[in-house]
User: Fold Glycosyltransferase from Pristionchus entomophagus.
Amino acid sequence: QMVRRIRLICTLGITACMAVTLCLLFTLEDYYLIGNLRILTTWSDGVQALPEKLERPREKEMCKEHHIAMVLGGYKVVNRASALFKSILYHHRGPLVFHFITDEQSREVLPNLFDTWKLPSVRFHIYDMEKYKSRVDWIPNAHYSAVYGLMKLIIPDILPVDVEEVLLLDSDVIVLNDFSPVFDAFTGTNDSTLFAMAENNSPWYTQATATKQRWPARGRGFNSGVVLVHTARMRRANWTEMWRVETELRIKEFGKLQLADQDVFNVLALSHPNMIVVLPCEYNVQLGGQSQPVRCQKDDRLVKIAHFNSPQKMKMKSKYVVHYAQKYAVYQSMDGYVFRLREECAPDNSTSTLLNDLIEENDSECGDLFTSILTKYRTHLYFNGFTPSTDSGDVTLVTQLSVDRFGIFDKVLTSWEGPVSAVVYCTDAELSQIEEFMKVSRLARGRHNIAMHAVFKTGKYYPINYLRNVALNASKTDFAYLSDVDFIPFQGLYQNLRSVVESVNMTKKALVVPAFEIASSERLHFPKTREELIKEWDEGRVRPFRTDILPASHNVRDCAKWKD
Assistant:
């Protein structure tokens, strides 16, 4: 009986321990819910740890609008930053205002990207960097970022005066956890404190020698990949005059900048110690060639922001870069539509007329179709980089496809040497596969006249008209050849079309290009000449496209007349 009592007590003790453990787990999971989205955490390598205090942000703080600014130049930079956008949205609860300083290319992409994303409690503003470049392009700069790497210095001049604080982020960072505490960095400081930065992870500034001259810095210096700036104080302190005078003086002594705006921020922090607040290192864990991220990680801190600050970015093979590149890939593949579920701070509980209509439509047999018609498809233009044609008489092949049609698309590229504007209907995860195709395709890799656009999948229908219109609107030439991707153009069609549009007045005219299909799917030989085509037509191996199914539609081409 005593043994049974002991067993019962042990059983009750184990049960109690399990109950306590489950309560703790549910408490932790409850903490790691941000809006409707779970935060990604990694515990396997001991890099991340729980914060000391687990507190939900107060409702008033959650509804405070935070401003984030980025300098984004070029199609490919915007594509890389798309994972950064998702990581910010994933880990930040509350209203956001993005300020994008752009060049011509990024300005073509960003408005469409965010307009079609339809993100609750998110606003964005676009600024043309051409209007401001002259304020910094006089500075000699050896950094690979060129003039883009100097634009942070003039943020107070670019942003509206009602923006008092803004977080400046490089495009090569990724957010890994809730970073909202960074916006409290100026709490308790006075007007002399203008910016907040984390320490530089690399020994760059401490390696100055007679032959390796460095701009001066305090200790290891500070990294400008993540900077919180108090623009209101900067304006009151005459920031523009301050940094210009300091920069002109240091150029005479130390020559051109080596690390772009970072050198300027550091000399100001050295000469005005009260100007800077030092951020904890977890807000900017740098992964460059000389960086030593272990200096931050050894403290077992929760990494907030990782920074791929080398020209090689995620191609570096260090264990830290590989580790955080995997996290970048998670955000890259994340379904962007989920962020349409972000919480509004002041939700409207009334049911809109549109929602009432949608409910009625979904109750009908055509509900899915009506939903598809009303869908705003997320769209990302020119994700692969692109050099537009400058020839006014050029002709662009306009097409659309899904990921499984890339084998055929490769054949199309074999026969069409002119500009291409192609839309891919894909998921976020499939987009990375497309980028790999563009890298390995022998034809696509060496060409810069192929513009690729992504329309992201949702629902069960293939929105062919929307896809075609996106590709057509994104083409840059005066003339466009519209074709489905499974129509293989014959060799010379591009040059033939160019000859026609150059010799004929094309005002209010359209050219109809005859199309043929192979009678047997087992035989994929394509006739290369008119004579060979007519011969196979007479033998029944080739026929005009779909004349046996929709003769009224396809006989308009009058292929028989062309044949005779």
User: Anything to note?
Assistant: Residues 19-56, 350-354 have pLDDT under 50 and may be disordered. The radius of gyration is 29 Å.
